[in-house]
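Q: Okay, next protein. This is Thioredoxin domain-containing protein from Solanum bulbocastanum. I've checked the sequence twice, so it should be correct. Can you predict the 3D structure?
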Amino acid sequence: MMKNNTMSFFFIFLLLVLVSWPFITAAETEQQKQQFAVESGKVLELDESNFDAAISNFDYILVEFYAPWCGHCKRLAPQLDKAALILADLKQPISIAKIDADKYKRVGSKYGIAGYPTLKIFMHGVPTEYYGPRKADLLVRFLKKFVAPDVAILNSDSAISEFVEAAGTSFPIFIGFGLNESAISHFAVKYKKRAWFSVAKDFSDKTMEFYDFDKVPALVARHPNYDEQSIFYGPFEEKIVEDYIKQSLLPLTLPITEETLRLLKDDERKVILTILEDESDDRSKKLVKLLKAAASANRDFVFVFVGFKQWQGFAESFDVSKKTELPKMVVWDGDEEYFSVVGSDSIEDEDQGSQITHFIQGYKDGNIIQKRISSGSFMGFINSMIGMGTVTIIVFVVAVVMIIQSLKEEPLTVGTRDEGDHPSSSTSQAEARQPLRTGEKQDKED
């Protein structure tokens, strides 16, 4: 009898625990939320004890992994403070937090932190590397994209205008006019980090005229930053739609910059690179217009251009010097190899459109010479980006690290597509005396 009573008591106790457990867990979660809510609008300071709770309690949270000695981190701090105030007031708020990854190495190691500052956006607990701008106003606009619906439903002309205005210029914009959202919803999720997606259910003839399409359904791709637009009328088969979206994520032509190099690493197409003397002069601008026409007819390539005057170090990587006759075209794999087309070493002033067509056809026909990026020009490329003083410090710090840790570091390859942001040291002596710490990441501000 006593044994039966004991068993009954045990089962009743277990039942009470199971019933009350969700309420206990909910109370703990609510307590954690209240703890973080007190700091709403401020950059939260996290540590190992509350890091996991923070990323699980917020749907969207930007985390800075920093080191107290990092100069770039110190310069970034006021920008994050300004952004936190704005992001906290959004309809779908985004929180900003930071953690000393140099002190809390377990957390830093878990998320593969290799330099400071590193920014990651956690969306429903899932981390994604943040490569966007770091000035407060641009950072806010960039982050707002992550909390937007995968596909915005637009039911009027005014809704379309408001959507485009809110989207800004940092990303391409896709608008499906008269298109069912199911036709692009899968791709909207897949490419959410790189573009805005929407479908317009109701619109006027005036809107059709403004966006320059004459029938529906139509998928319009816009690049506000480059004042470019293209229109796709179908067929709306999955593979064909995805090919159009992938090819429209970049504008028809774009200049080589630090930002576009990061964009190119995410594109699988070969790069047709045109090296100009000076990308800002009228002669070059005329050629760029011809390149846009060629790009429109050859969407299986990415067309980019660079001025020898603007980025001499980069141009020299392709065996170009002051004595080289420019403009010159090559096909680049985005990594360490490129191809010259036989008989198309340079572009003459006359009939340039035909010469561009001849170059592309020559490549497709296999009339090419395969070459490798000139490693001797690497220092010139780095020099054009960040200056000789910083290069000297980078070389010094890397040498010290190699000696102390006996590690073999690979140098940065020009435009390597599987590279992310690259760490570099600060210019202060205090930071240069930290040989066992991973170097700082350079800010790439838009």
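A: Here is a summary of the prediction. The chain has a mean pLDDT of 80. Residues 9 and 15 are 10 Å apart (CA to CA).
Q: Noted. On to the next one.
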